[in-house]
Amino acid sequence: MTGQIEIEVVWRGLSETPGDPGEASSIAIEHRSLRLPSGSCVADALDCMAEPALSDRIRRGLLVVAVYGERTRLDRVLTDGDRIELLGPLIADPKQSRGRRAQAQRSRTGDARWTRRDR
Known about the structure:
Blueprint: E1 4-16, E2 24-37, H1 42-49, H2 52-59, E3 64-67, E4 70-71, E5 83-87, H3 94-109
Parallel strand pairs: 1-5
Antiparallel strand pairs: 1-2, 3-4, 3-5
């Protein structure tokens, strides 16, 4: 195979406040577009990025590698237009978050749709 492919790598980074180095002010989504030879795999793309902090977090299992949201292995061959995502752990359990929102809605409105019915 000859030619090149273009892919994108996306991860969550921390942006810092200029006056307070080291204190995270907000979460920013980082992304980088890469041009690689055809037949390149996920590991090749990550090596090409030369981001030691990200590589270390992947090696220690703190980040999971996915392509379009599906967890994948580092030896997966990439195709043109693929989007590699470096995913961290969930900040909150989605089920518990939904329960808290429903409870807040119940207490605000008293709406019967938000109350549990006894069977």
